């Protein structure tokens, strides 16, 4: 009995020893990983982003552009199509229309803009222009031998969208409305009939103001970045408007008779289109 059970007990002892060793090996913890070096730690560190408040304090810098107040001015060449007025009294009697191409050669608008870049892409502001007009000699608005001068003011709000605000060249498109005021002064000497067959030398001094709405004004342009706060580029405008109100006075100084003041003859509205092309300088202060 004793000799037969000894091998059996030895086998059980060996199996138990192997099992315990295997279990201990499975439960043995893995060796700790090597600590990261200082360079590896700095490489994996995430760079914090600035809050919107910090961005504003840094001068309005954004990854895609800048925000803040903006001022721009441009020198332009302009021309128009359509009418100053319709159904006005002709010198020979009857009614006649005065076209812009009859009364003006070309104009030189100076356009100023003041507004705010609400986001790098969107601008809200106002625009205004002053433009001297080179006049043409014609029987209706500037007779031969008369001194004629014409100026126009326009002003209104505008919204603009910038397509690539963070790029070196940023094209944009704008839309606005406004008010147009056209002022003309015509002065010269002529002959006025005071009785059948009787004409007397007369000095004529006429002041006229035509005004009305700019119904729509489309602007196209692009900013070429020169510095962080300065850009230059082209500007094109196209607008449609209508002179709806005409006011003014005419003074006749008739030789041997005296001075007479008279009002202007009535006219109907003048619908027209105005176009400008120029070079623009924009400032976006830091």
List keywords for this structure.
286 residues, alpha+beta, eight-stranded antiparallel beta barrel, two-stranded antiparallel sheet, 4 helices, 60% strand, disordered N terminus
Task: Give a description of the structure.
It is a single chain. The protein is of the alpha+beta class and 286 residues long. It has helices spanning 2-27, 38-44, 52-57, 100-103; strands spanning 61-62, 65-66, 68-89, 95-99, 104-107, 110-117, 122-135, 147-162, 169-195, 198-225, 230-243, 245-254, 258-262, 270-283. It has an eight-stranded antiparallel beta barrel. Strands 1-2 form a two-stranded antiparallel ribbon. The longest helix is centred in the N-terminal third of the chain and has 26 residues, at 2-27. The chain is elongated, with a radius of gyration of 41 Å.
Order of helices and strands: HHHEEEEHEEEEEEEEEE
- Which sequence of strands runs across the widest sheet? 3-6-7-8-9-10-11-14
Task: Outline the biggest β-sheet.
Answer: 8 strands, antiparallel, barrel
Task: Report strand %.
Answer: over 45%
**pLDDT under 50 segments (min length 5)?**
1-31, 37-61
What overall form do the CA principal axes indicate?
elongated
Number of strands: 14
Backbone structural class: alpha+beta
Number of helices: 4
Quote the average pLDDT: 83
Give the proportion of residues in helices: 10-25%
Report the radius of gyration as a whole number of Å. 41 Å
Specify the oligomeric state: single chain
First-last Cα distance: 104 Å
């Amino acid at each position: 009995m004793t000799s037969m059970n000894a091998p059996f007990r030895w086998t059980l002892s060996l199996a138990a020893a192997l099992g315990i060793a295997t279990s201990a090996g499975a439960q043995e913890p893995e060796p700790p990983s090597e600590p990261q070096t200082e360079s590896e730690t700095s490489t994996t560190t995430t760079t914090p982003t600035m809050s919107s408040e910090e961005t504003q304090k840094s001068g309005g810098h954004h990854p895609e552009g800048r925000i803040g107040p903006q001022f721009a001015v441009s020198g332009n060449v302009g021309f128009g199509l359509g009418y100053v007025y319709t159904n006005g009294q002709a010198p020979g009697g009857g009614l006649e229309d005065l076209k812009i191409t009859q009364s003006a050669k070309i104009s030189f608008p100076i356009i100023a803009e003041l507004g705010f870049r609400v986001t790098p892409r969107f601008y809200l502001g106002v625009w205004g222009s002053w433009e001297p007009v080179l006049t043409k000699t014609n029987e209706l608005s500037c007779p031969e031998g008369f001194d004629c001068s014409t100026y126009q003011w326009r002003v209104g709000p505008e919204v603009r969208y910038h397509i690539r605000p963070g790029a070196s060249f940023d094209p944009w498109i704008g839309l606005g409305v406004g008010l147009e005021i056209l002022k003309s002064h015509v002065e010269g000497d002529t002959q006025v009939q005071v009785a059948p067959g009787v004409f007397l030398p007369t000095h004529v001094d006429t002041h006229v103001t035509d005004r009305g709405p700019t119904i729509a004004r489309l602007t196209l342009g692009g900013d070429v970045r020169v510095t962080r706060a300065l850009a230059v580029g082209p500007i094109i405008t196209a607008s449609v408007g209508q002179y709806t109100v005409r006011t003014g006075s005419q003074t006749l100084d008739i030789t041997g008779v005296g001075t007479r003041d008279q009002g202007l003859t009535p006219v109907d509205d003048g619908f027209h289109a105005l176009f400008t092309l120029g070079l623009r300088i924009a400032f976006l202060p830091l």
